[in-house]
Design brief:
Strand order of the largest sheet: 1-2-3-4-5
CATH class: Alpha Beta
Largest sheet: 5 strands, mixed
Oligomer: single chain
CATH topology: Aminopeptidase
Distance between the termini: 47 Å
Length: 171
């Protein structure tokens, strides 16, 4: 695969929070989940570039202009006894699709996983997102249909947290 000469990928920095938030909002709109976005630039700056970053972000650019992003973080496989790379979000602007931006991001993430000696590279995709499912299948990804994603947020998360009220000492 040959990529456009003006396509570049770089790690995002604190000055990119407005761009990252724009991509998050565009992704949420595409996924019909814009009502769930509560993130703001200050939260992104604190959680992505503060003293204990929760994730990393790659930006893909065409001609120096950001056209997409990938937000990822390490997870861990007890079966492999190795960390893995979990891709939380990948988004490319519709105007930049079909030019290799998504493939370049996925390839860069795979390279990061290999360079960091991670055991696997995983992500979730909405079951109705046929273009994404087809794209990932072309890359060789296989759905893990025997697993379902479970999620706690808000009141149920707080309720569960309240069951164990004793402190957990830091290591």
């Amino acid at each position: 695969m040959s990529f456009p000469d003006d396509l570049t990928i770089r790690f995002a920095g604190p000055g990119d929070c407005a761009v990252i938030l724009g991509f998050i909002r565009a992704l949420a709109e595409y996924e019909r989940l814009e009502h769930e976005v509560v993130a703001d630039e200050a939260q992104l700056r604190a959680t992505l570039f503060g003293p204990r970053p929760g994730a990393e972000v790659l930006l893909v650019e065409l001609g120096g202009a950001p056209v997409g992003f990938a937000l990822f973080f390490p997870n861990y496989s007890t079966f492999l006894a190795r960390p893995g790379l979990y891709l939380e979000d990948l988004f490319v602007l519709p105007s930049a699709r079909g030019r290799g931006c998504g493939l370049a991001l996925m390839s860069a993430l795979a390279r990061i996983a290999i360079e960091r000696d991670y055991g696997r590279f995983e992500w979730s995709v909405l079951d109705w997102n046929r273009p994404a499912l087809d794209f990932y299948e072309q890359l060789g990804a296989r759905p893990q249909s025997e697993w379902t994603v479970q999620r706690l947020v808000g009141a149920p998360l707080a309720t569960l947290a309240a069951y164990w009220s004793r402190p957990v000492p830091a290591p």
